[in-house]
Amino acid sequence: MEQLVSLAKHRGFIFPGSDIYGGLANTWDYGPLGAEVKNNIKRAWWKAFIQQSPYNVGLDSAILMNREVWVASGHVGNFNDPMIDCKACKARHRADKLIESALEAQGEERLVDGLPFAEMEQMIQDYNIHCPDCGAQDFTSIRQFNMMFKTHQGVTDDAVNEIYLRPETAQGIFVNFKHVMRTMRKKLPFGIAQIGKSFRNEITPGNFIFRTREFEQMEMEFFCAPGSDMEWFEYWRKAFYEWLIRIGIKEENLRLRDHEQEQLSHYSKATTDVEYHYAFGWGELLGVANRTDYDLRQHMEHSNEDFLVTEEGKEPFIPYCIEPSVGVDRLFLTVFADAYEEQALDNGETRTVLHFHPSLAPYKAAVFPLSKKLSEGAQSIYAELAKEFRVDYDESGSIGKRYRRHDEVGTPYCITYDFQSEEDKSVTIRDRDTMQQDRVPVSELTAWLRERTL
What does the pLDDT read at residue 445? Predict the structure, then answer.
């Protein structure tokens, strides 16, 4: 993980937040190249599940919502994590993760999330679990900690004006269900998807950008008739897993974990996590949940709005909902970690390379003049390609050093304009992964690059 963090900062992917003021714990700023990759991830998701889907439409709902939304959804009363403090050093821990990490260190993999507090406290005793910060075994009792960020709307800080930063984007979809169905003339089954910021006051954020308090989600709520829900659950479970592989994540680093009955959330009929093997162990990357009619039913009861759907030959019903959800930041970390390689070369040297899928790479290509005397011709090619692609122009240092710089940022193709280019109107294209070089006519360059990167 240290190599990833170092490369991310060194090459302009991710910087510590508020760095010149000493930072703010667990906040990160995406640099120029990080912003490109992040936007490419979001574009790839939107294209796959909205643009190319006959079922789904997009939405962009507000971060600040009426407080009653969160009362109805259960977040005000139930959106809690188990918190425990070390009495010796005053460190605060999320109890389930404390236990899971300790068991993993002892060679045992076990999911503790959702267990009763009494059972977790007994496990701390049985497994002789100590505070990872100071080594003491003197903990408080486990208690609930609500993770929503509270603020106030307006000029007075009183309870009447109390609102929350949204902890998920999903509720913005549910409250707009009727609007979307009516304006887009949708019939079941159909989905509503959106990308947006969410905020959770995590007890123990960490592992770089794996768990942060401010994060971006890509969520879809797919509405269908009761009875067809498990069929659609399996459909989207498969579709999202295959999409992860299509954007370049190695299948050997992925696994599917179905939740046992006792692990399911109160609203869920079935849940599957797609987990990735990070440097710190297996962790959830993407989740697909069958939320039944829980959310629409809750909002129907609290708002007095009618969410019943009528289909020919059936009694009116509240639609069931399948929710595939993935964090943009966590997917960024996954893509970054999966692409990273320190590769030993035949000449004894080592190169650092990011094997990004070309569609996610921050630059699709880099243009080099072999000599600064050739800058005019190279800049002309750069200007033409920049009309359609995000490309870089680099004339500093030797060709070898320029190759290495772009290997480190994941540029899939480096285009060299040399003295021969002046005569034959062709350029040399070097492939990042194979390091092989091919000669391509300048007139065919845009089409060549489009075929391989879009």
Answer: 97
Measured CA to CA, the distance from residue 126 to residue 233 in angstroms comes to 38
The HSE-up count of residue 137 (CA atoms within 13 Å, CB side) is 12
111, 130, 146 - which closes a domain: 146
Q: Would you say residue 295 has pLDDT above 90? A: yes
Query: How many other C-beta atoms lie within 10 A of the C-beta of residue 416?
Result: 20
* Average pLDDT value for the chain: 94
Total domain count, the chain: 3
Contacts of residue 168, defined as CB under 8 A and 6 or more positions apart, other chains included, come to: 198, 217, 219, 325
Give pLDDT, residue 159. 67
* The dihedral sign for the CA sequence 32, 36, 41, 46: positive
In this prediction the pTM is: 0.90
312 lies in some domain: yes
* Tens digit of each residue's pLDDT (9 = 90 or more) over 13-23: 999 999 999 99
Residue 426: count other Cβ atoms within 10 Å of its Cβ.
18
Is residue 273 in some structural domain? Answer: yes
Range of the domain at 91: 84-146
Does residue 318 belong to any structural domain of this protein? yes
The answer for 437, left when phi > 0, alpha when psi is -120 to 50, beta otherwise, is beta
Amino acid making up residue 152: H
Note whether residue 349 is domain-resident: no
Q: What is the CATH number of the domain that holds 370?
A: 3.40.50.800
Question: What CA–CA distance (Å, rounded) separates 150 from 70?
Answer: 12
Residue whose pair of structure tokens reads 């609203």 in the numeric block: 267
